[in-house]
Amino acid sequence: MLVPQPGFGTFRLLNKGRFPGEELLLVRIPGPRSISNNEQPISVYRRALWTLFGSLAALELRNDRLKSMALPLLGGTRGYEIKDLMRAILEQSLSWLKATRVMNAVNFYLIDQPHIDEWALAMDEVLGRKFVDTAQNALIGALRDEILARLTANTIESPSDNLRKCLESLCETLQRQRISIDRIATDGRRLAECIAIALLKEQGIAHPKGHLADHINELRHRKQTAPWIISHLDCLRAFGNEGVHLSDEITYRPPRLRDDDLVPILASLQRVIAFFATRD
What percent of the chain is helix, strand and coil (3-state, nearest 5)? Predict the structure, then answer.
């Protein structure tokens, strides 16, 4: 679709075989050693990513069903520094999610299993994530244990596929002794989105439109969910927005989540999960 020069670009595969998705795109990325001019290799990598997201923008003009994308962490075996790759992928993915009309998620996948810890560390470094030791705070430990007890007991009946994945991700994050504030905030936002959509469907909206803020406003307008539960959903939305933040041009204070913010995040998670499991 977009091929700025023979060495790299994004190609649309017309023969998808048994692939169940709407579109299948192939991104060709040159290795650093094959770049012959004076351009920095990571700049060429970023241009290759640009062809991917530019192609998605073109596809959106004719297809409004591209709700999410499965994105392998591209180029990990080509000789680039993993931290540089992670920053480029995160920055361009976030820029795309701000610009897209219909897509609401870019899900990263790693096939290179032996290097998963290296990729996870690179993501934490790029995002500036902070970790809190749950053993050092009794309140945080108690909230964590209560949420895990509900999750492991499967108190939410017949969750949708998206909700089940959100619950599994949240459970995995909470099972670590040292919790990443940003990661739990991001998991909480995803869970709030799944629950808000599920509630709207129960209230008669078959296909909720818009983003999480729109879903929360619709729930508030319908007055079928308690306002304090909606406030908890909105708190998770606000915390989650800060969980993935790469901008250095932040004007508000404090500029980042702090250790103390973990308590309200966990408190909202606990209340929302308890409510959705019992509707009480």
Answer: 55, 10, 35
**Can you tell me the distance from the alpha carbon of 126 to that of 175, in angstroms, rounded to the nearest whole number?**
23
- Which of 22-36, 106-120, 182-196, 241-255 bottoms out in mean pLDDT, i.e. has the lowest? 241-255
Same domain, yes or no: 119 and 191: no
3-state class of 56 per DSSP? helix
Q: Is residue 24 exposed (0-12), middle (13-18) or buried (19+ Cβ within 10 Å)?
A: middle
CA-only gyration radius of the chain, Å:
20
Go through 209-244 and write b for each residue having 16 or more CB atoms within 10 A of its CB, e for each that does not: eeebeebbebbeeeeebeeebbebbbbbbebbebbb
Partners of 68 in the beta sheet?
Answer: 105
Beta strand ranges found along the chain (DSSP E):
2-5, 8-12, 25-28, 68-72, 105-109, 131-133, 178-180
3-state secondary structure of 133: strand
CATH number of the domain where residue 23 is located: 3.40.220.10
Task: Give the CATH number, domain containing residue 170.
Answer: 1.20.120
Residue 203 CB neighbours (<10 A): 13
- Structure confidence at residue 94 (pLDDT): 87
Q: How confident is the model at residue 40 (pLDDT cuts 50, 70, 90)?
A: confident
